Fold GFO/IDH/MocA-like oxidoreductase domain-containing protein.
Amino acid sequence: RDLSELARESGRELSIGYPHTYSPHAIRAREVMRSGELGAVQYVNCIMVSRVVEFLRGEGSPQFGSPIFPVHGPGAVYSQPALSGGGQGHLQMTHMVGLLFFVAGLRARQVVGMMRNHGLAVDLVDAMAVEFEGGALGSVGGSGNAFQHKLDLQLHCERGAIDMDMVAGTTTIRHADGTVEELPPVPDEERARQRFMTSGNLVDMVLGRAGNGAPAEVGWRAVELLDAAYRSAGAGGAAVTIESLYE
């Protein structure tokens, strides 16, 4: 919050390193949500399953890592709580949570979090129940010990729905009038390039050629949700409100 407010007060842009917000599917889904056509969000499902357990152990590259969305070491950065602050949540879930806030424009109100380390010093498996401002409910979770890669976001709204599969590169939008919009699949090579778009967008912003593709508020909302989830898990699953983070 402090960094976001400092940037705004200084008339500067703060860009977050979230590559998924540069996907044409994310941009289209955000456009539909902002139009208000689908009405209020009622239920959110957000999952990120990936293979990063080797990093969370402090080892090298994952044996079954994704060629499209690679994670880079050294493992010590991810395996030591004093350096990372946590495991699967901070390393991986942050990306899908960021996508959620980018597309849906929501903000968490309270979070119930459960996490399991499975012998590691940091969390490997996360499950979160979230109440958002406005009344929407959601489930957010994932595992870093997966043998497949899943990055899914579903938004079920008053008058329609959005179903995004970032691994398959597909998105389905069910409009209020009953029509179904299937977005053209994003090729693997284009999705692989998205990880470079964060730095490219930063250069373009400095040169005045583009706006901010991953606004500070998206990262701020993601940090709030994850901070509340870690605190909740540390308190045995007690609900933690976002308001309490600032007390």
